[in-house]
Amino acid sequence: MRGSLFRKKGIEDMLASVSKGNTLKKELGTFDLTMLGIGAIIGTGIFVLTGTGATTAGPGLIVSFIIAGLACLFAALAYAEFASTVPISGSAYTYTYATMGELLAFIIGWDLILEYLLAVSSVSVGWSGYFQSFLKGIGLELPVGLTAAPGAVKGATTYFNLPAFLIVMLITILLYVGVKASKRVNNIMVIVKVAVVLFFVVMAFTYVKPDNWTPFLPFGFNGVFAAAAIVFFAFIGFDAVASAAEETKNPKKNLPRGIVLSLLICTLLYVVVTGIMTGVVPFAQFEGVTNPVSSVLEVAGQNWAAAIIDIGAILGMTTVMLVMLYGQTRVMFAMSRDGLVPSILSKVHPKHGTPYISTWFFGITAALLGGFVPLDELASLVNIGTLSAFVLISIAVIVLRYTRPDLPRAFRCPAVPVIPALAVVFCVFLIYNLGSVTFIRFLIWLVIGLIVYFLYGRKHSKLNEY
User: Fold this and answer.
1) Widest Cα–Cα separation across the chain
2) Are 213 and 59 in contact (CB under 8 A)?
3) Cβ neighbours of residue 102 under 8 Å, at least 6 residues apart?
4) N- to C-terminal Cα distance for the chain?
5) CATH number, domain at 68?
6) Per the domain annotation, does 389 fall within a domain?
7) pLDDT tens digits, 259-291
8) Is residue 21 part of a domain?
9) Does residue 350 have a cis peptide bond before it, meaning omega lies within 30 degrees of 0?
10) Closest by alpha carbon to 231, among 421, 387, 102, 397?
11) Helix axis angle, 220-231 to 379-403, nearest 10°
12) Is 224 inside a domain boundary?
């Protein structure tokens, strides 16, 4: 067992470990967790990817969002069962460790690093674009060299994306101070950005022309499926709620509620906004548009309202980065505590009760990536890492039902094994639609991870002590 690649960490041992010193403060309730999920989900997806998806699927983008949302809902039910049963930091990594062994757990943890880190960096670049647009609106402009990463803008010499770097560093400071301060800021920004989305619905609804929904599927179901694989990025983040397990006051009840509620609310908003967007503006006109939601109001002649949407986009992307970086540090905290990565990454600050070294390390890394690297093509790479995690979690629920039927479960995923199996089918289908280039990049990342595991993680694993 000691040298096995598939050695498992006992669930009872995991639960016992959280009471021994290296633990996090419990600050979160159902409302906070729901806000955390909405904060992570509503951002780049609704303010940017709706335009990209519309040119791929046309008005049928509504169906694309429903397909991606179903894939996430099925996986969310599996997450909810695990989160209420094993309320420990680490999300999919921790659950896989308990059911399918150390090697697969490390691979999932490595996937989550890819998801969270690149998501923070890529969203910071989108945030920078909206922020610069806002500055221009009030008569201010940054030097061109500080507006984008090297080579990111054709016909211009750029050196560094200063706004992208600074916003990630500000979020890092906030997370370093503590989850209590972070949740307050997140809750306020989430309420504001949801209000902005509802404001868009009210303002744009009267400009809908039903003729723009015809043809509903201009590119057939192939376009719908391709768009679903793209807009899946819009749902990434609900799994970060599971990462907050150790900081939740009543995880057995609050975690399932927070995960499912945040996902259902966001799916509804996506479908409504997409329907209105493609009803006001013909889908072909979204080609190359980086601010599709506000551009709809500009077409309707409501420029003042479009400016409000831009502010909502800035807030929306800020909360996405906040929750993603939060999830990143908590997964790394769990992996470090298990010995699979250096132990320094699980040190908890004596005053703030946060994994401060991990927070600074990944915050600075994400900020530098956003500042120096053009990441506009990496959404697919983020998606494949997340979808892989969803597949394994769904399988893990089935495995645990049969290997540990005696385990107390505050929330039970319904219709096992049917629901988890549907999650696997939907997620594998979306992976298939991502393309070969994404597979190659993903395999390179996995190879690097396996090297780290065999050279460091396997040797330093805490399971070697048993």
Assistant:
1) 69
2) yes
3) 4, 5, 6, 7, 8, 9, 340, 458, 461, 463
4) 9
5) 1.20.1740.10
6) yes
7) 888 888 988 999 999 999 999 999 998 876 767
8) no
9) no
10) 387
11) 80
12) yes
Grouping H, G, I as helix, E, B as strand and the rest as coil, residue 149 is coil
Structure tokens at 84: 């209420």
Question: Residue 238 corresponds to which tokens in the numbers above?
Answer: 């609900």
Q: Give the whole-angstrom CA distance, residue 275 versus residue 456.
A: 50
Which residue from 302, 303, 354 is spatially nearest to 328, judged by alpha carbons?
Answer: 354
* Six token digits for residue 129: 């674009």
SS3 248: strand
The tokens for 119 are 């998501």
Q: Which two tokens stand for residue 372?
A: 């120096």
* Residue 306 lies inside a defined structural domain of this protein: yes
Q: Is the peptide bond before 163 cis (omega within 30 degrees of 0)?
A: no
Highest mean pLDDT: which of 191-205, 299-313, 364-378, 379-393?
191-205
Owner of token pair 């009803």: 279
Q: Is 70 exceeded by the pLDDT of residue 128?
A: yes
Rounded CA separation 60/210 (Å): 13
The full DSSP string for 15-34 is HHHTTSS------B-HHHHH
Please tell me the total number of residues recorded for the chain in this structure. Answer: 466
Question: How many domains is the chain built from?
Answer: 1
* Cα–Cα distance, 352 to 249 (Å, whole number): 17
Residue range of the domain that includes 102:
29-461
